[in-house]
Amino acid sequence: MFTWPFSDRARLAAARSLVEHFAPIMNSRVSVQLWDGSVLPLGPNADPDVRFIIHGAGVISSLLRWPSLDNFVRHYAMGRLECAGADLCTFTEMARGEGIKKFRHGLSVWKLAGKALPFLFHRADRSAVRHVIKDSSGWEPIKHNYKQMLQFHYDVSNEFYQLFLDPEMVYTCAYFTDWNNTLAQAQVDKLEMVCRKLRLKPGDTLFDAGCGWGALLCHAAKHYGVRGYGATLSAQQVAYCRERIEREGLTGQVTVDCKDVNDVEGQFDKVASIGMMEHVGVRNYATYFQKLHSLLKDRGILVNHGILRGAKRTTKKFFKSRPEHKFIQKYIFPGGELGHIGHVLEMMEQNHFMVHDVEGWREHYVLTCTQWCKNLYANRVKAAELVGEEIVRMWAAYLAGFASTFAKGSTRLFQIVAVKQRAKGGPILPSARNDLYERPFPSEMPETGHAKAA
């Protein structure tokens, strides 16, 4: 029977042929579901319930004409492409397959071109997302832009974040004293580790730059007797923090303002910058560390915790914008920028900090992002009711993507301990690091016990 080469039947036949061609090469454990409902395995051990769903021939037409990550993400966000049967981290791992490295070698350009022909003259789907910032190029230290960019990400909904974060609402890398610990345990241990690195003691004043939902401030106040102050430009985070402070009986001991860090005044015994540096912009590191240095009393301690990338052979190569960077800036963290550890240490020392410790937590963030992704998938129905399917899909893609980049090592996480030491005097930090580990962490204590400050 003759089939018109540009009919839907021809497009379905071409799509099936392509999947059948790629399946033995990829040896993947997922299947592909076409727009007619047919399910095709992408390998001999493919699970028919874990499927990559293509909801129309127009999607393939679009991707063939504009083969970019941005176009792919837009189709995924709008539900034209779908991953079903597993959270996105698990799906990605299953889809990778044993033969993914051989994929390019087994790819027949001529066969691809022949099978693509029925799609090239078909109308392409044009998926347009709503949650996008119009100008995400670069990062300028302009306050109203800075606030807009931060609120774009954090003011989506407190209730939305509660669906995938831990009970303490910590939105930075957890610390797993045991890889089998739950996310909730690991986040409390992380708060504890930061407090220990700061060498907090009763009566200390602590400033938390970009304090999030207030977990570190409240933990430090309750368990170390400090007086805490936090600043964030997220109006929803401030509202949550103030309600939390009152609920936990910390009124007068902990305060939070909706304020730019550059506008904070005064001096503090200790300063924490946990997950704030990613928003600053590499070109603004010097200004940022100058500000933190001015806020810290002499002989005070800073813990700086942030995501970074690996260094490149040249500065030009390092700053070359990649598709995944553009995706993050356009749809998730507008203005976000990641430096490398060498440059950060250089900027800290140029601005009079004395660096004592640098600790890599990359593997911890792989597990953190994976747990967030799984939690979001488990609560996807409620999440969609709160913020819509588009944002849920975007956040799932970003969490799964970050888990993958941390696993590969293209992104890293470092905690840096530094001090401000102008006046003469003895050592600020202990001679050894035993005090960080000699007491059990909260997750290692029976029931709900907590390791007390020394």
Strands, total number: 11
| Average of pLDDT | 89
Number of domains: 2
What is the helix content? 40-55%
By oligomeric state, this entry counts as: single chain
Q: What's the CATH topology label of the largest domain?
A: Rossmann fold
Question: Which structural class should the secondary elements be placed in?
Answer: alpha/beta
What global shape is seen? elongated
Strand order of the largest sheet: 7-6-5-8-9-11-10
Q: What share of the residues does DSSP label as strand, in percent?
A: 5-15%
Task: Please give a structural write-up.
The chain is of the alpha/beta class. The protein folds into two domains: 8-120, no CATH class; 143-444, Rossmann fold. 44% of the residues lie in helices and 15% in strands. The chain is built from 19 helices and eleven strands. The chain has helices at residues 8-26, 57-65, 69-77, 88-96, 103-106, 109-120, 143-154, 158-162, 183-197, 215-224, 235-247, 285-295, 315-318, 323-332, 341-350, 362-378, 380-387, 389-408, 434-437; strands at 31-33, 39-41, 51-54, 81-84, 205-209, 227-232, 254-258, 268-274, 296-309, 354-360, 411-419. Strands 7-6-5-8-9-11-10 form a seven-stranded mixed sheet, sandwiched between helices. It has a four-stranded mixed sheet with strand order 2-1-3-4. β5 (205-209), α10 (215-224) and β6 form a beta-alpha-beta unit. 43% of the residues are buried. Mean pLDDT is 89; it is low at 136-144.
